[in-house]
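In this section we walk through a basic example: taking a raw amino acid sequence and producing a predicted 3D structure, encoded as discrete structure tokens. The instruction is simple. Fold the sequence below.
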Amino acid sequence: MSKLKIKKVAKAFGKKEKVLNYTSNTYHLTRPKKVDAVMALMRECQPKTFEEWESFYFEKAFTKTKTPIKVTKEILTELGIRLYEKITQVVVPEWTEAFSQITLQDCIDFVYEVTIHRTYDGFIREKSVVNDYLAKKFPAIKFEESDPELDHAGDIDYLGWVGERAFGIQIKPITAQSSFGNYSVSERMKASFEEFTERFCGKGFIIFCEEKKIKNEEVLRAIEAEVARLKLR
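The resulting token sequence is shown next.
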């Protein structure tokens, strides 16, 4: 099997990268709904050259919408224009106002909040979602907190054991869907979830909650299907 030549083709945006990533993720401009499931297409293509991948993408890519639209260079250009408009018309004004209002006390309070208060809130939220809801909906499943290494590296908070196999759960507050960061939550977790599946056989699921209520209830049906699948293995 021939080895791929390691040659980067991506452009570096330097200090602008954080702003571009934040805005793109916040307004979902590079999500599957707009540009298709890119990594899935990449794995289907298995390109040996960049040119092969680029050609394959524009031939196969469709928006993940109710009525799929073929992705073209013109559509990507349009998304880039919308990204610029969001940055210049929304993000810059909002951040400029925020920057002018931030105080030393805000910074001190924020560090304390994230370290102490929000960690506690997150812990209680996870416990409630698992013990007050999931454990009751899936009484035959043994839910277990993940070890620190798995939680840190694999984005898994809890394991749901189906015999000797397990599926994984990451519990996030609803605000995580629009949090400041250099990554898309769904894309970031995809690779770690695949590693989890290789180790435990089960899939990884993200549960978004507000207070103690699960907001993406469709994930419960997906978990139910996964439990049935693991029982048959």
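Looking at the output, two observations stand out. The chain has nine helices and five strands. The mean pLDDT is 87. In the next section we compare this with other chains.
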